[in-house]
Design brief:
The complex is a heterodimer of chains A (548) and B (538). In chain A, 33% of the residues lie in helices and 15% in strands. Chain A has 17 helices and 17 strands. In chain A, strands 1, 4, 6, 7, 8, 9 and 10 form a 7-stranded parallel sheet that branches. The radius of gyration of chain A is 25 Å and the shape is globular. The relative contact order of chain A is 0.12. With 538 residues, chain B is α/β, with parallel strands linked by helices. Chain B contains 20 helices and 17 strands. In chain B, strands 6, 7, 8, 9, 10, 11 and 12 form a 7-stranded mixed sheet that branches. In chain B, strands 3-14-17 form a 3-stranded antiparallel sheet. At the A-B interface, β5, α3, α5, α10 and α15 of A face β1 and α20 of B. β5 of chain A pairs parallel with β1 of chain B, so a sheet runs across the interface. The complex binds adenosine-5'-triphosphate (ATP) and magnesium ion. Chain B: It is found in: Cytoplasm. Chain B: Keywords: ATP-binding, Chaperone, Cytoplasm, Nucleotide-binding. Chain B: This is T-complex protein 1 subunit zeta-like.
């Protein structure tokens, strides 16, 4: 039986990742009946079938996203599919009608007076077509918002705009209380209740929720609130949370302290209600084989590709695991924080063997997308996914007799993982489908990646741009590892340490109208979390000077 | 700043004058934007965003929320005015106009040398007089339907076209009357508002009962039930795994299947209990009656199938806030489990239950209930922006009716109060009691009140000065509240023509506008946007 997942995206960066993620989903759809046997991913888990008023069938994400109006740009709040009948019931009014352009960049006002202006006038002016896609994706500066490159059509109930009067989204000092401010707006909270209800009621057997959100801004606290009501109503469903962590400036004033503490408070709230939390860094990370830029359009594409791969485990029914199983295995001993690392692409040398490829680029070399992980620690539980090794790819060359007993890539990979994760409760899955990439996924691969995702030693003399334009990378093998890591204690520890600054704490409690006691409670629950982590050996020497 | 003071002892005064000027200009600017909105002949605004999203409104409160106001003074005025809406549900536009006009009138005297403090003293005295007049001209009412209709119609005709306004008027009045209980506070939450993108605005209607925006989810479930037993419950009818542990993964698929079967049985038993109850109650003389299950938790396809086979209509994931209303409406008890306590005593009743499907949306109507204390307003409209516009109007209408009932009185509108208050304040009998130059402040206040009839006239294409003269003349001869007939341009008696405003709206309006205008007059420094920022707070 299919087990549906509802996705929640909160904030601009989460929506960037989301836009790529939905585009990747659609790029992976298999339409060709001859290839249907290859289908692994059950798309109905993330998408729903629907019907417009005019009887047209639709297929749209089970998605609620939150942002401010200006991020929508040319995307109508209700999407394009379910447009009502605008030919009937225009503005009818006995007096004058004034048209005001709500332009995002300028506030120019245009007046047209007259009786009973019919709606068609503006309908003609309406931008037609699905979305505005920059003509040349290598020019990332053309992208102003995630809505510029989101190809997937949304259900009219997916977009939720933050109430105008609530300033939210950037880590300024007031942001922590912004989440609760939003929900105090009766109209907004009823809207969310209705939208969420629509998607939940639609599910035959809800598997859980995926939440993508900022953590150090108001969206993080809005997510806290949503999480707590989700765990209230749907406590048996899984809640996989992916917070995005910006690289926050060092604390040198109250203004720089505030987002750090907001992060700490939200982290604590999330940990209480989430099934699993995998923080990811939204800044540019140096990854081998990638040439991506530091803008959101590029960095989010990398994260989306990794999340897509890691989540295969509960999107491929054959795995036998759903989100609850998966998270409860990984979050053993009540440690809900996990890290995500990836090999993107999973390095397969063209015209070589898996064994040889692995020897040059061992699995250990995977890049960790989770910030502040103390590197020297080994995981206690882990889930590995490798996708897209072609069945025809040779395992090893002749003359490597010690590997003769291996008959499939699975054997070889498991062996590799076995040595990486000795003493750790790990499980792995090999999926056949590679990650299918399609425009407007950015061209982020270095020139030694072939269009089918192999690494070639033959470097073409063309520039990256020209080669990618003529022969872009269409699919890549990817591997990811979700690990429950002793090294994640640093993130929590950094949060706990913030509570030592009594002056800033006091200021924060005044600014956000929070009781100091509430802050202390948070500190204690973070300390409880910290207790679950053994202090890594190389840090034991730095003795504890916390006087409390 | 101290340096400037030493150099120029007059700097402080100069700065105060400058601040006042800036405040007055900001207030005037906002007034300019809003003045065309006032009254049934005001300008409708159509806000169009880059994506073609449309918002149509004439409501001051909605507009202030949509505008991005940067100027700190203007945003203070905007916030006061939206607070007015939060407290009373109406009068936002009038609030902005009155604040602007109070400042404008006072500025004239201040520029001629009147000290702002003296001006505000005059304001205060005049305000007290205005409130007295308000109490004098109010019309006492009970909850008579025709009076409530008058006040709702007045409000709604300033928001939507006349034919629609008149339809919505009946809807909101009857909705409030249906949920109103003797000696209880009116809880507007008992009125559910449901939207349907279908037909036209004029098909909007009031349903005595409950409408949910979801349906049966199984093709064989009954579409209509006449005379239904109703079970409201909060019981999961989905297949649920017992607590899993990591060893689950390593079980063979055979073992796994057996486990699933055992767990499935647990769910099936719960559904069977409900079926057993249905069979029991729908037997003998009741065998022609139907059975409706309203479940707050999920019902999965296999369970739906079991229910459908027994001709039971089952709704899953009923909204939490509807559970309470359903129980109130149908009677019965909300069950948290289906064990032995599940008996026919737990059941409620509905005379008729039917479903209506539009595209992918199904609506279930539960009507003819035991206790119609909760009602649903079903908004219809061909597109989203017209639905939103109706929804905004309905909110205003409901508030107007509730206010009128709670105030137990209403105020003749169309400028009648303003004309009466103006005349009472400039009456020498009152003026002579005011000492010194504070008289000028009171005069400014009285003149400022006239902004309402003036704007109403202007928006109706009439000459404001002609109108004011005409109305004042009429009032001085009749001493009976007289307002403007915006269609003919003549004077009229609003009490006769049924144009009424809420008492609390006017009261709040006079008080808050005077307070803010006084503050802005006295402020000797331009307000900074960062006022609320933390560094200054600490
Ligand atoms: N038929 C009418 N003839 C004359 N004046 C009317 C009529 N109906 C309403 N009014 C007047 O219009 C004014 C209310 O207008 P309107 O509702 O547009 O503004 P508001 O209540 O100040 O602000 P909001 O935008 O919040 O509703 C009141 O002074 C009322 O007496
Ligand atoms: Mg009004």
């Amino acid at each position: 039986m299919q087990r549906e997942i509802i996705t929640l995206q909160l904030g601009e960066y989460a929506n960037h990742v989301g836009a790529h993620w939905w585009n990747l989903q659609e790029a992976g759809f298999i339409y060709d009946p001859k290839q249907i046997a290859l289908k692994e991913v059950e798309n109905d888990i993330l998408f729903r079938q629907g019907l417009t008023f005019r009887g047209e069938e639709t297929y749209t994400p089970r998605l609620l996203l939150f942002d401010v109006r200006s991020s929508l740009r040319t995307l109508p709040e209700q999407g394009f599919l379910y447009k009502g009948d605008s030919s009937r019931g225009g503005v009818t009014w006995n007096g004058a009608i004034e048209k005001v352009e709500r332009d995002i960049t300028s506030n120019n006002k245009e007046t047209s007076e007259g009786e009973d202006i019919a709606m068609e006038v503006t309908d003609q002016e309406r931008i037609t077509g699905a979305c505005y896609i920059p003509s040349d994706t290598t020019i990332a500066s053309d992208v102003m918002s995630w809505s510029d490159y989101l190809v997937t059509q949304l259900h009219p109930r997916s977009v939720n705009l933050i109430p105008n009067e609530v300033e939210i989204g950037f880590p300024h000092s007031n942001s922590y209380c912004m989440g609760s401010l939003c929900l105090q707006n009766a109209e907004f909270s009823q809207l969310i209740e209705n939208q969420l209800h629509f998607f939940v009621e639609d599910c035959d057997n809800l598997q859980g929720f995926q939440l993508l959100s900022g953590l150090s801004d108001g969206y993080g606290s809005l997510t806290s609130q949503l999480l707590s009501s989700l765990s209230d109503e749907y406590h048996k469903s899984g809640k996989c949370c992916i917070p995005f962590l910006p690289s926050l400036p060092l604390i040198d004033s109250f203004d720089t302290f505030s987002p750090h503490l907001t992060l700490a408070l939200n982290l604590s709230d999330w940990l209480e209600h989430a099934s699993m939390l995998t923080p990811l860094s939204n800044s540019q990370l140096p990854l081998p084989f990638l040439h991506h830029q530091s803008n959101s359009y590029h960095t989010a594409s990398v994260l989306a590709a990794a999340i897509d791969t890691a989540s295969l485990i509960y999107r491929i029914p054959e795995s036998g695991l759903d989100m609850q199983d998966y998270t409860s295995i990984l979050t053993a001993s009540g440690r809900k924080l996990t890290s995500l690392s990836t090999l993107l692409p999973f390095p397969l040398l063209r015209e070589s063997t898996l064994l040889h490829s692995l020897s040059l680029h061992p699995l250990i070399s995977a890049a960790c997308l989770t910030p502040s992980v103390h590197a020297s620690c080994t995981p206690i539980t882990a889930c590995n996914i490798v996708r897209g090794i072609p069945p025809s790819y040779k395992l090893f060359g002749t003359g490597t007799s010690s590997y003769d007993s291996f008959t499939s890539p699975n054997d070889l990979i498991s062996h590799e993982f076995g040595s990486k994760y000795s003493g750790c409760n790990s499980f792995s899955m090999l999926a056949n489908s590679p990650l299918t990439l399609r425009y407007p996924f950015p061209n982020i691969f270095s020139s030694n990646i072939t269009h089918d995702g192999f690494i070639t030693s033959h470097i073409s003399t063309d520039t990256v741009e020209s080669r990618l334009a003529t022969n872009p990378v269409k699919s890549i093998p990817v591997s990811t590892a979700i690990e429950n890591h002793n090294g994640l204690f640093t993130l929590v520890n950094n949060c706990v340490e913030l509570f030592q600054n009594k002056t800033y704490l006091q200021l924060f409690s005044v600014a956000q109208k929070l009781e100091l006691d509430t802050l202390q409670e948070t500190r204690h629950s973070l300390l409880d979390v910290l207790d679950r982590y053994p202090v890594p050996e190389d840090l034991v020497l730095q003795s504890d000077t916390d006087s409390d | 700043m101290t340096a400037i003071k030493e150099l120029n002892p007059n700097a402080e005064i100069a700065r105060a004058g400058q601040a006042l000027l800036l405040n007055v200009n900001a207030a005037k600017g906002l007034q300019e934007v809003m003045r065309t909105n006032l009254g049934p002949k005001g300008t409708m605004k159509m806000l169009v965003s880059g994506s073609g999203d449309i918002k149509i409104t004439k409501d001051g409160n909605v507009l202030l929320h949509e505008m991005q106001i940067q100027h700190p003074t203007a945003s203070l005025i905007a916030r006061t005015s939206t607070a007015q809406d939060q407290i009373t549900g109406d009068g936002t536009t009038s609030n902005v106009l009155l604040i602007g006009e109070l400042l404008k009138q006072a500025e004239y005297y201040v520029s001629e040398g009147l000290h702002p403090r003296v001006a505000t003293e005059g304001f205060d005295l005049a305000k007290i007089k205005a409130l007295e007049v308000l109490d004098l001209i109010r019309v006492k009412i009970g909850a008579e339907r025709h009076m409530l209709i008058n006040v709702a119609r007045t409000s709604l005709r300033t928001k939507v076209k006349q034919d629609l306004a008149d339809l919505l008027t009946e809807v909101v009045v009857d909705a409030v009357l249906a949920i109103k209980r003797e000696d209880f506070h009116i809880d507007l939450h008992m009125i559910e508002i449901m939207e349907m993108m279908h037909q036209t605005e004029l098909d909007t209607k009031l349903i005595y009962g409950i409408v949910t925006d979801h349906g049966g989810r199984h093709p064989d479930m009954p579409r209509r039930i006449d005379q239904a037993f109703v079970l409201t419950c909060n019981v999961s009818m989905e297949y649920e795994k017992s607590e899993i542990n990591s060893s689950f993964v390593y079980k063979s698929s055979d073992q796994r299947e057996r486990l699933v079967l055992a767990e499935r049985k647990f769910t099936d038993e719960k559904v069977q209990r409900i079926i057993d109850l249905k069979k029991k109650v729908c037997s003998g003389p009741n065998s022609d009656k139907g059975f409706l299950v309203l479940n707050q938790k999920g019902i999965d396809p296999l369970s739906l199938d079991m229910l459908a086979k027994e001709n039971i209509l089952g709704l899953r994931r009923v909204k939490r806030r509807n559970m309470e209303r359903l129980m109130l409406a149908c009677g019965g008890e909300a069950m948290n489990s289906v064990d032995d306590e599940l008996t026919s005593d737990c059941l409620g009743y509905a005379g008729v239950v039917y479903q209506h499907t539009l595209g992918e949306d199904t609506y279930t109507f539960i009507e003819d209930v035991k206790n119609p204390a909760s009602v649903t307003i079903l908004i219809k409209g061909p597109n989203n922006h017209s639905i939103v516009q109706i929804k905004d109007a309905i909110h205003d209408g409901l508030r107007a009716v509730m206010n009128a009932i709670e105030d137990e009185c209403i105020i003749p509108g169309a400028g009648a109060f303003e004309i009466a208050a103006h005349s009472a304040i400039i009456d020498p009998e009152f003026m002579n009691d005011i000492k010194g130059k504070a008289k000028l402040g009171a005069k400014a206040f009285a003149d400022a009140l006239l902004i309402t009839p003036k704007c109403l006239a202007q928006n109706a294409g009439l000459d404001p000065q002609d109108i004011i003269v005409k109305l004042q003349q009429e009032y001085s001869t009749n001493k009976f509240p007289v307002g403007l007939d915006i269609y003919s341009g003549d004077a009229q008696f609003p009490i006769d023509s049924g144009i009424f405003d809420n008492y609390r709206v006017k009261r709040q309006l006079i008080q808050s506008a005077t307070a803010i205008a006084s503050n802005l007059l006295l402020v000797d420094e331009v307000m900074r946007a960062g006022m609320s920022s933390l560094k200054q707070a600490s």
